[in-house]
Amino acid sequence: MPRVVIAHITDTHIPGAGEITHADAQPTLNLQRALQHASRRSAGILITGDCAAVAGTDTEYAAFADVLKSAMVPVWLAPGNHDDSSKMQRLFKVPARDSRCDYVVDLPGSRLVVLDSTRAGREDGALDVSQLRWLEAQLGNTPAIVAMHHPCIPLGGKGFDTIRLDDASIVGLRAVVTAAVKRGARIHALVSGHAHMTCFAEFAGVKAIIAPSSAYEFGLMDGVFSYQLGEPQYMEYSWSETGDDFLARVITVDDALWRRMR
Ligand SMILES: [Fe+2]
Q1: Weakly modelled stretches of the chain, pLDDT under 70
Q2: Helices (H) and strands (E) in the chain, counts
């Protein structure tokens, strides 16, 4: 049976023309390659924020719009803390509800539920009561992938855990997901970005996934907060047309690394 495949790219951090934020990093080239790669194998591409390098400026978004031309399939955007949500709604026609980028994409056998977890001027994220109620109404028999920029799972260390979803939002999200699962709603996964690390955990009985940044990975090097360069990566999600057999896979973008088995 044919499978439905989508890509999840995140934290693209595209600088404006001539701007450099991390020495030796190539976020624009990385995103271009990731979009081209994902377009060959996916029905659509989800990008969960930090599309812009630093502050959602016009020059950053002009560069982002330029590289988005590499995508040959639909692209679904969510803002991150380095983005400007209202500007993304205007420039990229991101659907919105109550001025936030909350929307649903119905796909064969499953649906993508996108939430805007950004709050202007804050690094951490939040979901208000209205968003949680709306999310609750989107969860039912059709399996859902719930996507937002900020993770709901702890990563360890206050550097990351103070800038994930805020505590009240996590409590609210946990209640919504727990109740949904209890009434039989199907949720493939809660997916996010923000951490620049690929992580998998459980949240309220559901898989939680943090996708790798296409720009650079974060970590501690001898106790010092550092970034690692490498081939761009993204997550690939697939399921059968009946919405069963969900699979999440890490994809590395470099066809030159492959060797044919003899
Ligand atoms: Fe972020």
Answers
A1: 1
A2: 6, 13
